[in-house]
C-alpha cells in the first residue's frame, strides 16, 4: 500500500512542475511585453507569487526527503530537490534577463513613437493584440495542465483510500483465520482425547470379559471335576 508520505511527495513534485511551467510562461509574457510599464509591473507581481509558491513546495519536498526512513530514498529525493532549486535559479536568471529585454524594448518603442508618430501607434496596437492572443493561448494551455494535474492528485488520493480499505479487509480476514485456527486446534485436542478414552474403555471391557470367562471356567471345573 502506498504510504501517505509517498503520496505527499508525488503531489509536491506535480505542484513544482505546474508552478515551474507557469513561471516560464509568465517570463515569456515579459519577453513579449511591449509596454506600458504598468503591464510589466503586473506580470512581475504574478511571477513573484509563483516563485513564492514554487519555493514553498520545494521546501516541503526537502522536508519530506529528510523524514525518509531509507537512506537511498532520502538521497534520491534530496537530489530532486537540488535539481528543482537549480531550475528555480535558472528561471530567476531568465526573469531578470526578460525584464531587461522588455525595458529596453519599451524604451525603444517610446523613442520610435516620438519619431514615427501615429503609424507606430497603430503598429504597436496590432502587436499588442497579437501578443494578447498568444498570452491567452498560453494561459489556456497552462490551465489545461493545471486541471490535468489536479485530476492526477485526486486519482492518487482515491487510490490511497482504496488501498487503505483493502488493507483493513485483509487484516479483518487475517483475524478471522486466526480465530478459526484456534477452534480447529481445540477440536483436534478433543478428538485425540476422545480416541484415548475409547481405547481405555475397550481395554477395560476386554479385562472384564476375561475375568468373567475365567470365573465361569472355574465354576464349571468345580462342578464337573470336584476331585481336582
Automatic annotation (TrEMBL):
- By its UniProt entry, which InterPro entries does this protein fall under? Sec20, Sec20_C
Where it mainly occurs, coarsely classed, is endoplasmic reticulum
- Any one biological process term the GO annotation gives: retrograde vesicle-mediated transport, Golgi to endoplasmic reticulum
Residues of the Sec20 C-terminal domain: 134-224
Q: How does it sit in the membrane?
A: Single-pass type IV membrane protein
* Coiled coil stretches, renumbered: 37-87
Transmembrane spans? 203-220
> Is this entry keyworded Flavoprotein?
no
Highest taxon of the lineage: Eukaryota
User: A GO molecular function for this record?
Assistant: SNAP receptor activity
Q: Does the keyword Nucleotide-binding apply?
A: no
- Which subcellular locations apply to this protein? Endoplasmic reticulum membrane
**One GO CC annotation, please?**
SNARE complex
Its keywords, alphabetically, are: Coiled coil, Endoplasmic reticulum, ER-Golgi transport, Membrane, Transmembrane, Transmembrane helix, Transport
PANTHER family under this entry? Answer: BNIP1-RELATED, VESICLE TRANSPORT PROTEIN SEC20
Family listed = Belongs to the SEC20 family.
Q: Output this protein's name.
A: Vesicle transport protein
Question: What is the originating organism of this protein?
Answer: Lynx pardinus (Iberian lynx)
Amino acid at each position: 500500500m502506498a504510504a501517505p508520505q509517498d503520496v505527499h511527495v508525488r503531489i509536491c513534485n506535480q505542484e513544482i512542475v505546474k508552478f515551474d511551467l507557469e513561471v516560464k510562461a509568465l517570463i515569456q509574457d515579459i519577453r513579449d511585453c511591449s509596454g506600458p510599464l504598468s503591464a510589466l509591473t503586473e506580470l512581475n507581481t504574478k511571477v513573484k507569487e509563483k516563485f513564492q509558491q514554487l519555493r514553498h513546495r520545494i521546501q516541503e519536498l526537502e522536508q519530506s526527503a529528510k523524514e525518509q526512513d531509507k537512506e537511498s530514498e532520502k538521497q534520491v529525493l534530496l537530489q530532486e530537490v537540488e535539481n528543482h532549486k537549480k531550475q528555480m535559479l535558472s528561471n530567476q536568471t531568465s526573469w531578470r534577463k526578460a525584464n531587461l529585454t522588455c525595458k529596453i524594448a519599451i524604451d525603444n518603442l517610446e523613442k520610435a513613437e516620438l519619431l514615427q508618430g501615429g503609424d507606430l501607434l497603430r503598429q504597436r496596437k496590432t502587436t499588442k493584440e497579437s501578443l494578447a492572443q498568444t498570452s491567452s493561448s498560453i494561459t489556456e494551455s497552462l490551465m489545461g495542465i493545471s486541471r490535468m494535474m489536479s485530476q492526477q492528485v485526486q486519482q492518487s488520493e482515491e487510490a490511497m483510500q482504496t488501498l487503505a480499505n483493502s488493507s483493513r479487509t485483509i487484516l479483518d480476514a487475517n483475524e478471522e483465520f486466526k480465530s478459526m485456527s484456534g477452534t480447529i486446534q481445540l477440536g483436534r485436542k478433543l478428538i485425540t482425547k476422545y480416541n484415548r478414552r475409547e481405547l481405555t474403555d475397550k481395554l477395560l471391557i476386554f479385562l472384564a470379559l476375561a475375568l468373567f470367562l475365567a470365573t465361569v471356567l472355574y465354576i464349571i471345573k468345580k462342578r464337573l471335576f470336584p476331585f481336582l
